[in-house]
Structures are given as C-alpha cells and as structure tokens.
Amino acid sequence: MDKLFFFITMAVLSINCLPHNLTTDQEALVAFKTRIISDPNNILANKWLTNTSICNWIGVSCSRKWQRVTALDFSNFGFSGTIAPHLGNLTFLGYLNITSNNFTGIIPLELSHLRRLKEINMGSNNFTGVVPSWLGTIPEVQHILLDDNSFSGSIPISLLHNNSKLQTLQLADNFLNGNIPQEIRNLSALEYLSLSSNMLTGSIPFGIFNMSSLRKLDLSNNSLSGWLPNDICDGIPELTVVVLKKNQLSGQIPSNIYNCRYLEALSLSYNHFNGSIPSAIGSLNMLQRLYLGENNFIVLSVNCIAHNLSSDQEALVAFKTRIISDPNNILANKWLTNTSICNWIGVSCSTKWQRVTALDFSNFGFSGTIAPHIGNLTFLGYLNISSNNFTGIIPLELSHLRRLKEIDMGSNNFTGVVPSWLGTIPELQHIFLDNNSLSGSIPISLLHNKSKLQTLQLTDNFLNGNIPQEIRNLSTLEYLYLGSNMLTGSIPFGIFNMSSLRELHLTNNSLSGWLPNDICDGIPELTILSLSYNQLSGQIPSNIYNCRYLEVLSLSYNHFNGSIPSAIGSLNMLQALYLGSNNFIGMISFLYNCSRISYISTPSNSCNRPDFLDHLLQLCINGGYDFHHVKPVKQIHAQLLVTASLFSAFLSARLITVYSKISLLSEARKVFTNAPEDCFSNSLFWNSILRANISAFEYSKTLELYFRMCALGFQPDGFGFPLVIRACAMKGGVTLCKIVHCHVLQMGFGNNLHVSNELIC
C-alpha cells in the first residue's frame, strides 16, 4: 500500500511539474519586463503579449521538448533599467545576451542559480559593482563577456578556480585594478583573454604563457610592468594575436619569438622595450600587423614583408622543379621569371599584400610530386591540384597552411595514408582526396573538433578498418563521401545525428549491421542516402518518412529483408530509388506520391514479376505516378524484356499505352511491331495501338492498321471500332467511311452504344 501511494504521488508530481516550470519561466520574464524603464522600440509592448506563449516572444528561445526558456538575446534592443533577480529562476537557460543596451546597477546574485549557463554576454552596458565571483561556480560556462561597463575592484580569484570549460574571458573597458591573479593559469581551455583598458598593475603572470589553448591575448592600455619571458610561445604555440600596447613593459623582445609561428598580430607599441628588434620576427610568415612604435629600440634588423614575398616565389619555383611532365607547356610559357608570380597562370594573390592566396592547377596534365615548399605559402586559402597525375605522399609541410579553407587533390595517384594533420587546420571547410591510392584507416585526429568542415570526400581509395565513432564530431559536415573503399564494421549511429548532413555516400564497401530505427530524426535535411554494394541487413526503418527531403535512396546489393515500407511512398522529393538484389518480400504499392522519380531499380525476387510490372504500368496510365521522364518507362520496358513478359498481349498493350501517354509514338510502334505473334489475336493489343495513333492525330496510320487487322482475319471490338470510325471521319473519304460502316453492321456492332455514339458524332 505504501508503494502504491508513493507511485501515485510521483505520478501527480510529474504531471504538475511542467506547467509549474512554464509558469515560473513566464513569471521571471514578466518580472524582467517590469524592471525596464525605457524601451524605445516598443518591443515589450508589441512583441511580448500575455495572450501568446512566451516562446513566441521576441528574443526568447525555448526547448522543443519541454518548452522551457533556453536562450535570451536582447542585444541592441535599446533597453534601459536593471536586471530582475527573477531571471535566476530560468533554470534551463543556457545563453544570456543583453549586450549593447543601457542596463545599470549590479548583476544579481540570483543569476548564480543558472547552472546550465554556457554563455553570458552583458557587454556594452553600464553595470557597476564588482565582477561577480559566483561566475566561477557555473559548471558549464564557456564564454563570459562583461566588457565596456563600469565594474571596479580586482579580478576575483574564485572566478579562476578549476573552470576547465571557459574559452572566453572578456573584461575589457572597465575600472578593474590590482594585479592579474597568478591563478589565471587554471583556465586550461581559455582561448581568448581580454583585460584591456582597465587600471591593472604589476607584471604579467608567466603562467599566461603556458595556457596551451590560448589564441588571443589583449592586455593593452593598463599599467602593467616587467618583461616578457624568454620562452614566450613555447607553452602557447597556437597564439595568433598579442596586444600589449600602452603599458609600462620593458626589456627586450625575446629572440625566440619565432616559436609564435601562427602569430598574425603583434602590438607592443607605447611601452619601454629596448635593444634591437630580433630578426626572428622575419620568420613569422603568418604576421599581418606589426606595431612596435614609441619604444626605445635602436636597430631595425629585418624587412619581413620582403622576406615573405621572396618566400612565396621560392615555394612556387620549388613546385615547378618537381613537375616532370607538362604536356601543355604551361610552366614554360606562363610562368615567366621576369613577371610577377601573381600573373602566373593558376596563381591568385591578395590585393593588399600581393601574397599567394589560391592555387588552381586542376586539369593541367601535370605529373610529378608535391614540393614541401608549398607549405611556406602561409596566406594560401585554396589549393586545387585535382585531375592531374601527381604521385607520392602528401607532404607534412602542408600542415603549415593555417589559412587553408579548401584542399582538392582528387583524381591523382597519391599514396600513403590520409594526412592526420588535416584535422589541425582551423579554417578548413572542404577536403577532397578522392580517386587516389591512399590506404590505411581514416585518422581519428582528422575528426576532432572540426567545427567548420563541410565536405569530406575520400571516395575511390584503399581505406580500410571501421568508420570511427568520432565522425560525429564533424558538427557542420554537409557532404560525406567514403564510397569505393574497403571499410568494414557497422555504420556509426552518430552519423545519423549529424544535423547538417545533406549527402551520405558509403556505397561499395564491406559495411555490415543495420540502419537505426530513428533514421533521419537527427538528419532531417538529408537528400542522398547511398549505401549500395555493402553487407547491410535488417529491415528498412518504417519511419524513413522523416527523410522528407530525400532525393536518392540507394540500398541495392545488400542483405536487407522484410517488406519494403510503404513510408517510402511519402517521400515526395524522391527522384531515384535503388532496392534491387536484396531479400525483400512482398510488393511495392506506394509510388503514387513519388511524382519526381526518374530512376527505379526494384528487388529482383518479387518486383520483376509480371503482376508487379503491370502494377507500375497501371500507375503510369492512371496518372497516379508522374512518369514524365523517359528513363523509368524504358527501365520497365527492359524488365519486361528480361522476364519475357512482353509475350503477354496484356502487358504489351499496357506498355504501348504508356509510351503514347508520354508522346513516344515511335517507341509504342516498336513494341507493336516486335510483339510475338500471339499478341495479334488480342483485341486489347490492337486497341492500344489504334488509340496511340489517334492520340497522335495519325488518322491515316490508324486506318492502315485497321485494314491490316482485317487482312490478318481479326476484327475490332466495341472499343476498337469507335477509334476506326473517328479516323475515317477525320481523314477518310466518303467511300472509305461507307466501307467501315458496312463492316460495323456486318459484324453486329450497329447497336453497340460506343459505336453508335461515334457514328452520330
């Protein structure tokens, strides 16, 4: 009895909790609204209506499942007022952005209850008080932006304790004072640190230069003193921006600054640096902005821009020396040493710096190997050498191309493994390595945190092993091509949760296992699913209807079994369907809505049966299936020939009717001419060809067929004679029409309703 009471109580609580939470969220937002004293755009009055769901209020986003508030974005709304502590009750909130308004007062302590918060952006307001120490207790917070306010006091040490997920800390343009705490080194995942335009003093903690994830560091416009460590960048090799201008730093620029090889901006102006400018700066090939003014330097030792221009030319000359065949004489005639490399064919340069930004040598007919010197083209964003005859391995030095967005090396003869360093290129969006001789497994490091990759094309190689589970990390991937390799194992179910995926090509491997029941729930935009020529088994998931944008479904040559789900019939966008050579049972009866389809390959065990082929032809005739394309009709024609079904006068007549329907009278006549002799004793067969000619206004041909029919000893029936009478009326003379009328009477069709109606007309 006690257990029963417990379960009833829990059931009641679970029923009541959702409305309560919704009410709590609404109350929090209403409380927020009451604290707004200025709303110049009347957003709250016009867009926050109490008779509509809060999930429809502007700036508010909710979860689909629970309809709980998950994000608030009020940036640039022009609001003035204070922050209601009730916002702390939005316990599902993961994103809070109120930047660029005119909020004042302190940030309420109650916001510390937002345990799911991942980003808080309160920049460009007029908040006062101290930086909230409780921000260090939010377990999921990744981005804190409190810049351009009026915060004072020191940076709270508790903010810096064990915050292993924090990636952005932006406290610029406030009134913070004191030292930068040594504990800042605890922020192990920090990528962007901006403490500029405050009143910070003391030295820069050397621990900052061991924060391996750091990419951008801005401590400018403070009163920081001391010097830079000799091992600068040894602990932060990926650093791209260092801005330390307008401080009181002294000493020399460390000579091993060359370790900052990805540095794009270096700003040290308005300090007390002395000595010479190290020549190592000249080796910073990625450097775009250099500010060293207003210091105490005595020598300018290097012109790094000239060095970079020279480096690009040397790289291309080295590339040229590795070409052993140039059938079109491109290099001899179009790569002249007395002209700028930016005018060489296939080479594109930036307008401002005249640095090489793109190489397109596709279809040039080159043979040779790739010079590692190409890795010195540090401004290169696009590399296309597809459709040539390059051999050898892809050089490791190309990993230095940190700006690379697209690499296309398809249709060559590269060997070795797929380069794992491709996973380290931060801006890479498209990888094409198809149609080569690459071997080994798909490197897991290629799949780590590639948040920008949209295309991965590895088709037609010799890759083996499993598809790594880590492929699910490619959150922006739209096109995945792994076909024609030697991949084994099952398809990782994580692939079916890659929400950006549009095309999935895994055909011609040795993949096994089955498809998930919730296929397409996680990839609703999928247009192509190509899995043919594998060893997949099980049934086609019945909820494949969720793949509503599917245009191509290719599952042939596998071991699928069971019935083919009727849900395929709801795929209105489907253009090609390949299901042949599996173990399906039953018939297909669902093509009525697939109006765009132009290819059909059906299972051989049941779908080559005459009754099924007749079913497809009947769909064509009845208009339930839009066969405006010629190819699917010819496919059915071919199936009829293979199965000898055209020996059936009934099916031959159907096919003639279909060809007539799509205005292919010549094909209809071929079917008639090549039909077996038995067909010519069937009135339905004759009626179909008579009707086809009438539909094409071929009245003379209709009459010719009629007299041929009579010569063979056959006669039209009550459906054939009206066609002959119509042809006679349109083309024949009076004498001919009298002959036909006489035949009608002789054969006893004078009282036939259809014949009589045609005679009257």
From TrEMBL:
Q: Which UniProt keywords apply?
A: Leucine-rich repeat, Membrane, Repeat, Signal, Transmembrane, Transmembrane helix
What would be one Gene Ontology cellular-component term for the protein?
Answer: membrane
SUPFAM superfamilies per the UniProt record, alphabetical: L domain-like
The record gives the membrane topology as: Single-pass membrane protein
Q: Which residues form the Leucine-rich repeat-containing N-terminal plant-type domain?
A: 24-63, 310-350
Gene Ontology biological process terms, A to Z: defense response; response to other organism
- Kindly give the Gene3D superfamilies that the UniProt entry links to this protein: Ribonuclease Inhibitor, Tetratricopeptide repeat domain
Signal peptide region: 1-17
Indicate where this protein resides in the cell: Membrane
Protein name according to UniProt: LRR receptor-like serine/threonine-protein kinase GSO2
Origin organism is: Forsythia ovata
Q: What is the lineage of its organism?
A: Eukaryota, Viridiplantae, Streptophyta, Embryophyta, Tracheophyta
